[in-house]
Amino acid sequence: MAEKPVAKKAAAKKAVKAAEPAKAAAKKAPATPAKAAKTAPARLAKPAKPESHLSMVRRARRINRELAEVYPYAHPELDFRNPFELLVATVLSAQTTDLRVNQTTPALFAAYPTPEDLAAADPEAVEQLIRPTGFFRAKTKSIMGLAAALRDDFGGNVPGRLDDLVKLPGVGRKTANVVLGNAFGVPGITVDTHFGRLVRRWKWTDEEDPVKVEAVVAEIFPKSEWTMLSHRVVFHGRRICHARKPACGACPIAPLCPAYGEGETDPEKAKKLLKYEKGGFPGQRLSPPPDYPGLPAPPLAAG
């Protein structure tokens, strides 16, 4: 009879030892969602609150105001003396730089100063003059075609309406808005690769189609700002907010940019990425406006 308590104690010890691995496994096992919610809410980071449309509009308009202070001299970077020259230069600027166009057009306009002259030109001679801009055969067809249309349909004058401009060979909405905004003073938003890239980085829109981008941005800003907004954004894209390696550490609007950190954030390294007048180098125009703080670009023979 005295041995029964001893047997019970031994059995109890065996049961405790058998339960120890299960307890250890339970401690190592991840907590269930319900348990985690009860035990660790203080350690969970709260997700960022999505930006409202109103907040985005306010931020976008502030970016525009700050860019106006950074680039008070923003301007079209194609050399031109009249609407016809701007129209032709803009068509030639496709798939090349404004600098290369500016280095090419002086000889072109010296040879063919009017739509009538260009429409009657020898295509091979035009091709040789604009060869440096690339795709010279297709571009020759476009500029000679639009010159003929101006001669035949508009009395040799460039029309000041978007609906008329986009009917000309080689002229789309981007080119039409460049001409309207800078030759006629008609507000327009120019959605080139720089503009599209930056407005997406700034989360103004996710649209990729230029026409849709134009429509979205037009709703954010008053019409009076459209042309200069285009210049400022393009200036910023060419000088600081580059496609492959933005100079984030030298960007004056970094606090307003959701994409900050995509590029170089070290200030000294970022300064070395700056282009044109921001980096102390010549700009794209051979004949820049009087208030442009940078150096004029060299003619074609010099560079």
TrEMBL record:
InterPro entries per UniProt: DNA_glycosylase (IPR011257), Endonuclease-III-like_CS2 (IPR004036), Endonuclease3_FeS-loop_motif (IPR003651), Endouclease-III_FeS-bd_BS (IPR004035), HhH-GPD_domain (IPR003265), HhH_base_excis_C (IPR023170), HhH_motif (IPR000445), Nth (IPR005759)
Domain named HhH-GPD: residues: 92-239
Gene Ontology MF annotations: endonuclease activity
SUPFAM superfamilies referenced in this protein's UniProt entry, alphabetically: DNA-glycosylase
Pro residues bias (residue ranges): 287-303
UniProt family annotation: Belongs to the Nth/MutY family.
Region listing for Disordered, in residue ranges: 1-53, 279-303
Function recorded in the entry: DNA repair enzyme that has both DNA N-glycosylase activity and AP-lyase activity. The DNA N-glycosylase activity releases various damaged pyrimidines from DNA by cleaving the N-glycosidic bond, leaving an AP (apurinic/apyrimidinic) site. The AP-lyase activity cleaves the phosphodiester bond 3' to the AP site by a beta-elimination, leaving a 3'-terminal unsaturated sugar and a product with a terminal 5'-phosphate.
Cofactor details (free text): Binds 1 [4Fe-4S] cluster.
EC numbers: 4.2.99.18
Cofactor(s) the protein needs: [4Fe-4S] cluster
PANTHER family: A/G-SPECIFIC ADENINE GLYCOSYLASE/ENDONUCLEASE III, ENDONUCLEASE III
Organism of this sequence: Streptomyces melanogenes
Gene name of the encoded protein: nth
Protein name, UniProt field: Endonuclease III
Keywords on record: 4Fe-4S, DNA damage, DNA repair, DNA-binding, Endonuclease, Glycosidase, Hydrolase, Iron, Iron-sulfur, Lyase, Metal-binding, Nuclease
Extent of Low complexity compositional bias: 18-47
Cross-referenced Pfam families: EndIII_4Fe-2S (PF10576), HHH (PF00633), HhH-GPD (PF00730)
Binding-site residues for [4Fe-4S] cluster, renumbered to this chain: C241, C248, C251, C257
Keyword NADP: no
Catalytically driven reaction(s): 2'-deoxyribonucleotide-(2'-deoxyribose 5'-phosphate)-2'-deoxyribonucleotide-DNA = a 3'-end 2'-deoxyribonucleotide-(2,3-dehydro-2,3-deoxyribose 5'-phosphate)-DNA + a 5'-end 5'-phospho-2'-deoxyribonucleoside-DNA + H(+)
Domain of life assignment: Bacteria
